Fold each of these.
Amino acid sequence: MKINLNIYLLMENFLIIQLAVVVIFLYINCLMIFTFLKKEAFRTDTRYILFSQTLFPDSGLILIANLALVLVYYQVAIHFVVCCLLSVIMSLLTVVSPLALVAMCLERYVAICMPLRHADISTPRTRNICLLIMWLISSVIPIYVLYVSLFLIPSKLLLAYVVCSIDVLFVESWQNLVRTTLFQMYFLVMFGIVLFTYVKIMKAARAASSENKKSTNKGLRTVLLHAFQLLLSLLQFICPYVETSVLHIDILLYVNLRYSDFIVFFLAPRCLSPLIYGLRDEKFSVVLRNYVFFGHYTFVSNLFNSVNSRSRVQTKTKPMVI
């Protein structure tokens, strides 16, 4: 009884911390989405359009996943069809955002390694084709999950109410195995493409002149950070095997590990995109700060600069006390 109470309190504390983190990053994402939608210059630039393809799916995935987690925690049963729909949407959003990261790395590769061809390659037509391919590739796993599950699940279960989890859709053990294998293949291929772009940009950085060095090095750091994001996302699919082994050792350790894995390998990669790309981009961050300060960013910035200037002058003119 004491162990069950400790587990319940531990899960409740994790849930509170997790929801606090989610609210903060959803707020940041909403600000960035608002910034993207308000400025036409961002809506017509390939780099920022691809960035928006991480913001929208990540925000949706964080919101739906945490809603599902709260429902599971409080054991709230929902209709099976609704649960099936939520699971399919989460599977779709899990892939489309990393694919957008890969597309962003390829865009940086073309801009840095093939600058003369960048304008010809990065056109509205190729951009639309790229977005279509991204969403088509992302829909393969959700279609597999939906088709196989509806084929194997008994018809009477379609009218039932269940505590929603992706495991509800898997009647046979091989279904989850195939899904996990597909996810791992996707992320390994994407990780390989990102490493390819990193190596190419690194070579370009070594050969770049001093004028282009700064821009090339910044692109190199961005690609490296995206590779780190994809690595975290890839490790997410190894976690269940480790958690299953720990479950047989200690239940409290299992609960700790499961929530830690959820925050580090599920939430963190989705929360890193705004920090990596949005806040580090000079144009985007200036406009974002302006909206954060309700259009008075320039005034606030000048105010702080004038205060700092006066403090430096006072320090210099302050008489020496002997």
Amino acid sequence: MDLVEKCPGRYCGKLNFSIGGLNECTSCPSGYRTNVSKYCMPCNESLQLYDWLYLGFMAILPLALHWLYIFSVCQHKSKLAVMHILSAPCELCFAGIVSLLLFSPAGTLDLDSCTVRQLSDWYTIFFNPKIKYTTTLHCAQEAVYPLYSIVFVCYLFSLSLSIILRPIWTYKCVGKGAERKLSTKVTYAALYFYPTLMLIHAIAAGLLYYSFEYLLILASMIAMVIYCIKRDLLNVRDIFNERKILQHTFIFFCHLLLLSYAIIATGTFFAMNISQILPYLSATPIPLAFFFLTVQFTDPNTVALETTNREL
């Protein structure tokens, strides 16, 4: 009986004796994955660009939630908003660097990984084989190492930094009263963001891996439209007539940046080179231009006025 028959299931294997393994079929340890011969082999492949973009997307999620909450809560406290806006990316960058240093190869900003081959690689727990339909052989493992575990580690470090550092500089830099309460409220928001994102990642990591670029495009355009409507930005002149021109410019720049990021990820997924992706990047301003060109035809006041004129 060959090894394939001895180790049933998609993710069951046994360790190679050359690296001190056991002669039994089981789940591979962390940092290993089964090969074609059903041996647990170390993950020593380099991450693909699409994998790095996925990890970047998972870092963008908490940052976007932080900034959206800060803009909604601290819109009349510009100094306080800037402090929190700068604090959030610093915390995430530091947490990301520490996470990279901890994973193999330790002490470097590179990652050894196992290549993602299919959606089921993210959900090995659902593919435990049954021996003779009676005994379940538990072979759940991280077949996509380290794309699954490193996100939890990064979120945990970032949450810890938010809890430790923000109260300190809030106490030192923010005055007493309403501003301090507002700053504490923003800090408490992280206690809800990160556990929620961890739960989403635990359940839907594989689905996000194959669809994050499309979700990013959709979310970016919806957020841009909502922002323009709430700020009553119905044409380009409104952007420059407002006192908050820097805030508007920053929001629109982030929108274009996210669209460009999603387009690059989409092209990378379909194995396109940079020369093939560049023409699509030139189309990033089109949704914003389309909004300003067509919003006058969908303005409720305009529609109501035309309806009234027709009735008369």
